[in-house]
Write a structure and sequence with these properties.
The protein contains four helices and 13 strands. It is α+β, with helices and mostly antiparallel strands. It has a single domain (33-262), classed as outer membrane lipoprotein receptor (LolB), chain A (Clam).
């Protein structure tokens, strides 16, 4: 005959088990969160420590290439102006044509040089910009994600190359969006990986890979950023120069009243 515990003893035992499990799970989660913070701190120090964190603006110039099946389809020169954390203006030039994409927080506009027209960005375009911030190195390393109440956790180590493994941390946002960041054992940022849905509602794995870190004003920054979709390279950003902490007037992010204002190149 099976013996049963008295109800009060069963309840006490059950409560003790649940409490112990919850405490253990919470302790394990805390350890993982702390480990993730250590990885981020090491990366910040690797990139310049306080000099990196205190940078207010970044101006980059270089070439943006579009690739397919390993072949170059096209390239444009660009000037990219960022005021952290959420203002950016990028001017592309190809031949005699110029395109300007500008975002400031929740708003944005685009200048089409061929059509000579300025359009307010669609909701989808501004959402793409905000997703770009969420998946950026600056967002995770500068802690901007904390304002969105996202959670940082340590995933573990992932094979990188022969004999090398990367530390992986993950940001999880309240709406369920996640992005993983990989760092070398020395703390160098290597990759960011996230998923999205294409117009056909198919899941696509997007990945940015960082390379050729150059010391600029005491801040190490990747001069090459390769983008992959489902393991196929689709673009490359190749910086030729980067400047930090230049004074950037707010007026360059405001929508111009006339296309004539966009004929001149940005000067700082």
């Amino acid at each position: 005959m099976r013996k049963f515990l008295p109800s009060f003893l069963f309840l006490f035992t059950f409560t003790f088990i649940i409490s112990s499990f919850t405490h253990f799970a919470f302790a394990q989660t805390n350890k993982q969160d702390e480990k993730a913070e250590v990885v981020i701190k090491r990366a910040v120090e690797k990139l310049g420590g306080e000099k990196y964190l205190q940078a207010k603006s970044q101006i980059g110039r270089g070439k943006f290439s579009v690739l397919r099946d390993g072949a170059l389809l096209s390239f444009q020169t660009f000037v990219d102006v960022i005021v952290f954390p959420d203002k950016e203006r990028t001017e592309f030039k190809s031949g005699g044509s110029k395109t300007v994409q500008t975002n400031a927080g929740e708003t944005g506009w685009i200048f089409d040089g061929e059509a000579q027209i300025i359009n307010i960005q669609t909701k989808e375009q501004t959402e793409n910009f905000k997703r770009g911030i969420r998946t950026s190195l600056d967002n995770v390393l500068r802690g901007v994600w904390r304002k969105e109440n996202a959670a940082l956790s340590y995933v573990g180590k992932r094979q990188a190359s022969l004999g090398k493994r990367n530390d992986v941390v993950k940001l999880t946002y309240a709406d369920g969006f996640t992005v993983e960041f990989e760092f070398s054992a020395e703390g160098v940022p290597m990759k960011s990986i996230y998923k999205r849905r294409n117009p056909d509602n198919e899941e696509v794995i997007e990945e940015d890979r960082y390379a050729q870190f150059v010391d600029v004003q005491g801040i190490k920054t990747p001069f090459i950023v390769d983008h992959f979709s489902n393991n196929q390279q689709t673009s490359r950003i190749n910086y030729e120069s980067v400047e930090f902490n230049k004074t950037v007037p707010n007026s360059i992010f405001a929508k111009p009243s006339s296309t004539k204002e966009l004929k001149k190149d940005l000067k700082f």
